[in-house]
Amino acid sequence: MAAAQRSARIVRRAVRRHFVRPAARTWKLRYAPHLAYPNLQHPLFVESAGSADPVDQIKFFADLGFAGIEDNYLNLRPVAEQARIGRALERHGMEMGCFVNMVEPRNPPLWGARDRATRARLLRELRRTIDTARRVGGRFLTTSAGRDPRVPLALELAGMAENLRELVPVAEKAGVIICLESTSETRVPGRLLHHVLDAYGVVKAVDSPAVRLVFDVFHVQVMDGDVLNNLARTWDGIATLQIGDNPGRAEPGTGELNYPNILRFIHKRGYRGLVGLEHLLSRPGLAGERQALELLRGIDDAI
Q1: CA nearest 125: which of 114, 137, 133?
Q2: Which residues make beta-bridge pairs with 195?
Q3: For the chain, which terminus, N or C, has the lower number of CB atoms within 10 Å?
């Protein structure tokens, strides 16, 4: 056991030495690794950081020169831990990226419904998420909607736009952005927004800077393909971006997506927001984490 622990420490030190940002080699885009994906028990780079503690993770990301973090499950963390994360981000000059605007991730609200109870839930969840956002200095609220198959899609989309317009004054006053995300029907079934142009249509119908898109390249590839054209079509509605490769939603560079071309496209457009590393690892352990970092560095260098 002692020998294995020494070996792990040696590899962790090697990862840090290899990837800590030299002054002449900054990242071309502002990447934000995930604190916990696919769930709270699985930090993305737990072996390399040597700890599952979110503050230790943030320090490791800061050492690598990353601009921020994401944390889908931030709303589920204790208030004291949220505050610790916020202080750590401020200390390292990093930004809070996307986190989920939902108290019950497995039971998303029916954003297309017009009944009083649904609207009360939407407002209640938004206010709670705003409180969380204040603790971490966050703005981007990933928002997913459940689908009622008994209602025509067009009516549900119209209902979602109507509900969002009701919440816009609350979001604008708090300085947060409700980010609509289209998701893969096979990976996240039963949602209202499975196609990026449906989500974009709702954004345009609401017509507020407080309602935008989170463009998740993986989900768009699975459902719609044509990633570069869909980026161009929806560009004026995008608040933030997330990346993962297909198949498997593993690290960029392990699947079919041409990530040098995709990231070059957004770089040439002058995008300065965060690029969320919302993906799994194709290999477990330190070796898998190191591979993910090496692939990202190679892709970023190729932009």
Answers
A1: 133
A2: none
A3: N
